[in-house]
């Protein structure tokens, strides 16, 4: 194997064995967020649901501190590492940081306001109904919650002309999300599907959920993936056929 997954795993849960295959070091080091899946160029890794020991952030922190050092340990998901963790909360996506903002435009007043492009309610995936008539024949945007706050032009650049579903793969109770989204896709003859996520590792779970839902629906559909950086810039935009 190439070993990309072993370096992508902030918790040090993966290593290459004597046959150069990726193996779990200890199950308690795996947080289940799947950062390893996104970097595998051959899709050789799979997440299998089974009985196992629960993730232990403290054990993962100690393991990475010993094998990779304090800086790497500071990125372990959910670990509280004392001084080595100062100003950090473990998960790379939760790392505290300042983001320089561009100066405000000179234009003020009503003319400077941004028009909302939201055209339906509700929008949270937990609450939407696949039977809602406004989804029929629509262009659908499935967006991670944070994208609307990070991307200044969210309404005009992403949402305009689309119906919206939002979700957070890290904080939501996502059980049933894939099945609901698959039903929405299957019932409504969507014209297009865009998934918008952040660059943080845990956000990639939403893209996987969307792709699995399209596969489950049995409907051939182009998926446009838009990745937004925490600085508000679109760092990737590409389409694939499912």
Provide a descriptive summary of the structure in words.
By secondary structure, this protein is α/β, with parallel strands linked by helices. The protein folds into two domains: 4-74, Alpha-Beta Plaits (2-Layer Sandwich), CATH 3.30.70; 94-100 and 116-240, Dna Topoisomerase Vi A Subunit, Chain: A, domain 2 (3-Layer(aba) Sandwich). Helix content is 25%, strand content 16%. It has eight helices and seven strands; from the N terminus they run αββαααβααβαβαββ. The protein has helices at 4-8, 35-39, 57-67, 70-73, 147-150, 154-159, 177-188, 204-217; strands spanning 14-16, 22-24, 139-144, 163-167, 192-198, 222-228, 234-241. The strands form two sheets. Strands 4-3-5-6-7 form a five-stranded mixed β-sheet. A two-stranded antiparallel sheet has the order 1-2. Helix 7 (177-188) packs across helix 8. The longest helix is centred in the C-terminal third of the chain and has 14 residues, at 204-217. The protein is globular, with a radius of gyration of 20 Å.
Helix share bin: 25-40%
Shape: globular
Structural class: alpha/beta
* Overall radius of gyration: 20 Å
| CATH level 3 topology of the largest domain | Dna Topoisomerase Vi A Subunit, Chain: A, domain 2
Q: Quaternary state, please?
A: single chain
What's the mean pLDDT score? Answer: 83
Q: Count the beta strands.
A: 7
Q: Which strand order does the major sheet show?
A: 4-3-5-6-7
Low-pLDDT regions: 81-90
Major sheet characteristics: 5 strands, mixed
Strand content: 15-25%
How many structural units, i.e. domains?
2
The succession of helices and strands, N to C, reads HEEHHHEHHEHEHEE
Looking at the overall shape, the CATH architecture of the largest domain is 3-Layer(aba) Sandwich
Spatial separation of the terminal alpha carbons = 26 Å
CATH class of the largest domain reads Alpha Beta
């Amino acid at each position: 194997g190439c070993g990309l997954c072993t370096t992508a795993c902030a918790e040090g849960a993966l290593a290459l064995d004597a046959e150069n295959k990726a193996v779990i070091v200890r199950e308690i080091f795996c947080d289940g967020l799947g950062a390893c899946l996104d970097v595998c160029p051959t899709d050789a890794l799979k997440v299998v649901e089974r009985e196992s020991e629960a993730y232990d952030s403290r054990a993962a922190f100690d393991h990475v501190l010993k094998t990779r050092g304090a800086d790497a340990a500071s990125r372990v998901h959910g670990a509280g590492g004392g001084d080595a963790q100062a100003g950090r909360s473990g998960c790379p996506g939760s790392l505290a940081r300042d983001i320089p903002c561009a100066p405000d435009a000179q234009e003020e007043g009503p003319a400077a306001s941004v028009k909302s492009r939201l055209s339906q309610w509700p929008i949270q995936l937990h609450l939407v109904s696949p039977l809602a008539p406004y989804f029929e024949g629509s262009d659908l945007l499935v967006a991670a919650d944070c994208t609307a706050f990070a991307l200044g032009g969210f309404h005009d650049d992403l949402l305009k002309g689309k119906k919206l579903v939002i979700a957070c793969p890290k904080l939501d109770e996502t059980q049933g999300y894939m099945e609901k989204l698959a039903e929405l896709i299957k019932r409504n003859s969507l014209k297009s599907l865009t998934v918008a996520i952040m660059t943080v590792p845990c956000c990639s779970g939403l893209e996987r959920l969307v792709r699995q839902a399209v596969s489950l629906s049995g409907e051939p559909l182009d998926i446009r993936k838009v990745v937004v950086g925490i600085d508000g810039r679109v760092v990737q935009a590409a389409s694939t056929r499912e």
